[in-house]
Amino acid sequence: MPNAERSPQVALFVTCLVDMFRPEIGFASISLLQQAGCSVEVPERQTCCGQPAFNSGDRASTQDIARQTIEAFDGYEYVVGPSGSCIGMLHHYPELFEATDPWHARAQDLKARAFEISSFLVDVLQFRGIQSEFDGQISYHDSCAGLRELGIKTQPRALLSQVVGLQLSEMDESETCCGFGGTFCVKYPDISNRMVENKTANTAASGAGTLVGGDLGCLLNMAGKLKRQGHEIQTRHLVEILAGTCDLAAIGESEARKPTRATASPYDLAKQL
Amino acid sequence: MQITSPAFKQNARIALKDASLQKALGNLKAGFPVKRAQAVARLPEFDALRDEARDLKNHILENLDIYLEQFENKVVQQGGQVHWCRSSDDACKTILDICKQVDAKTVTKGKSMVSEEINLNDYLEKNGVTPVETDLGEYILQLRGDHPSHIIAPAIHLNLEDVSEAFHQHHHRPKSDDPAVLMREAREVLREQFVAADVGITGANFLVAETGSTLIVTNEGNGDLTQTLPKTHIVVTSIEKVVPTLEDMTLFLRLLARSATGQEFTVYNTLSSGPRRESDQDGPENFHVVLIDNGRSDMLGGELQDMLRCIRCSACMNHCPVYGAVGGHSYGWVYPGPMGSVLTPQMVGIDKAALLPNASTFCGKCESVCPVRIPLPKLMRHWREREFEQHLSPRAVRYGIGGWAFFAKRPRLYRLLSQASNLALRLLGGKKGLIHRLPLGAGWTDGRDMPAPSGKTFMQQWQAKQQAQQKQQQSPQEQQS
Description:
The complex is a heterodimer of chains A (about 270) and B (about 475).
Chain A: E1 9-12, H1 16-21, H2 23-35, E2 39-41, H3 51-55, H4 59-72, E3 78-81, H5 84-92, H6 102-113, E4 114-116, H7 117-124, E5 133-141, H8 144-150, H9 154-160, E6 164-168, H10 184-187, H11 189-206, E7 210-213, H12 216-228, E8 234-237, H13 238-242, H14 266-272
Parallel strand pairs in A: 1-2, 1-3, 3-4, 5-6, 5-7, 7-8
Helix pairs in contact in A: 5-8, 7-9, 11-12
Chain B: H1 8-17, H2 19-41, H3 46-62, H4 64-77, E1 81-85, H5 88-101, E2 106-109, H6 113-117, H7 120-126, E3 130-133, H8 136-144, H9 160-171, H10 179-196, E4 199-202, E5 206-208, E6 213-218, H11 222-228, E7 232-238, E8 242-243, H12 246-260, E9 268-272, E10 286-292, H13 296-299, H14 315-318, H15 321-326, H16 337-348, H17 350-353, H18 355-358, H19 365-369, H20 376-389, H21 395-408, H22 411-429, E11 434-435, H23 442-445, E12 450-451, H24 458-480
Helix pairs in contact in B: 3-12, 9-10, 16-20
């Protein structure tokens, strides 16, 4: 490879939800990182960032999982993931260990190398080469952990602005929590449900046909509510739009029942038949 | 006040269905946060002031004994008295004693959350002293036998119709829906009470060590009448409210008004420095400060110390989506919202209040608006850790997290678990790719669908691709050899 020395070495942090629910996000992430000139690996020993244990007060398990994650990503120049929440969790690792504990320094080291993907592309690589088209209006939900723990607000919008044909229609309260909150949504389902109702109402009012965000937890929650309410709005992860993989079924939809676009021409319909 | 924090979930469920409450909460959301944002935008140095306030509060908390003693000495020099009270009971007894000394029948009260915290009204009433709330919101609540649901807008859970009905029943005047008429009515009724009261009780927003002054801020002026008209003025307050100097106080005042209501300054900022002097035109003959600990000193030097920086502005609850959905009463005790979810377990016990620090998505909005930068999510997590350590968490959570963590520490097993769950969810999703009803996951699927996995796990697909690539690379070599 010609520029092997200079190409950033990235370990992809897949995250549990992407691994289990939507592999497309993982592949779109790899594609984007490669477009930006990175060489990407997927360390096999990675599991979960440990956030469910951390937020449930199980500090001992969190420490064990943190140590295991630190080891899994040892030696990589960068650790990049398609989630502000999970990368935000890696940034919490130093506070799990006493300053004198050797693991504290290793946690600090991981924190310095760990980036949410839009922030990595924009802040670290200053990447401006998005090659994607999207015909329509989207609205962007700012997921809490990315927004408030990692300062991710302008980066996804800077990347989306490079997508040909895409129009951004901001919703009211785009920075308000969707009510997912990890285990919160099952521990306090009534409250969570009310919060996601507010979110889908704001999404619908924005007029956008696609809801986009950077964290799959929030997206599963919002997509689930939009579907239950019978909205036609599609839900997608940011990297799917940026990598141009929107020909795949959206979140909560399947190839089998992909809705026929109202704008489809008779010729398109004929092809489908 | 009865603690209903253990019933938080039921309280919340009822609150979510209460149309009148939901209407009132809608007004809150459209009010305070918008005004705060505008006020902050007008003050470019706002964030720098927050840093300064955080640092100053930390300094005060590290030297709390020194500043409190300085404050006490000044109060005594000016002819006042300071009563140190460890618990709510101590404080209530002390206040009743003072009332008895002056043979008080009625006391007027300015708004004070500390007096709610020690349940003062009930105690006074049981012992033959009638308290009269003079803050309009508190007055409405007293008429209704209700409690505050918010720390600066105590009656925020009510609508105009509720107020109109309460006034009609208790004032025996024609019913009116005009806020101006209702306001005038309250003023007329309360004016008589101000004049008749034997004792005036107020809280304090700040205690100034260098001058021995207490300060209250109000937008109604009721605090001034409460503390200047009766012969005896009792200030009920807590130890973390002391600040070194008047100038320091102004730093907090600038932050407080903007964070709370979006005002640049609260309308009335009233200092009390001891009893009336000969040259004074008015003021009380006796001046008492009841200084309450009630668990606060236990927070010093520990993980919760940051919470003692709180200046009770209410920004955290005004911006909290959970508070905005369920209102203050759901929290089941005096302090609601994020700040209450940290304070309540300390004051009533984590065994009773564990549901509160769990009732947060950790969205971090509260911390982002806190004028003294209290890391509220971190402090709520502190309580979740205490809950977990003390085996107070529900069994499903303990075993669920424990079992899941067992796998998360073992990458190969975790892979198998992910694959199995992925397959099960895909089967449940069927051709539609959408799960309407999830066994053991009713919490999710009662209100929304769950998108099913779109295919095999990422790791399965990734490994298959890697293997296919390797085969492709190997086959030409094999042909060559």
